[in-house]
Amino acid sequence: MELLKKFRLDGCNTVSTPVAMGSMLTKEGEGNTVDSTLFKSLIGSLRYLTITRPDIVYGVGLQSRYMETLKESHWLAAKRILRYISGTLEFGLFYSYSEDAELYGYSDSDWGGDRDERKSTTG
């Protein structure tokens, strides 16, 4: 996959979830400042991928909150999503045309999970 090659993650150790359990990112973050151009390119590519990979939507949305104040902790969390994708390349949705197609959607909320503004993740 081109995305993994671009960020030099071919043959990386895979993970079973796109977001680490119990991880709490904040705007301040931890570590040194990261190149924002590279991070924004990665998040943009991941946003495009969410069309066929709804399993990464939460993680990508979470990372999108930190586009302006980037630290190493944000970068490592974004790379975790790539490591997850690397291990789940066979996952994804295939959309086909049908006159009688129906689409169902479900959502969950994370009340107060945003440590910076204390807003719900879904709204």
From TrEMBL:
Domain of life: Eukaryota
Protein name: Uncharacterized protein
Originating organism: Tetracentron sinense (Spur-leaf)
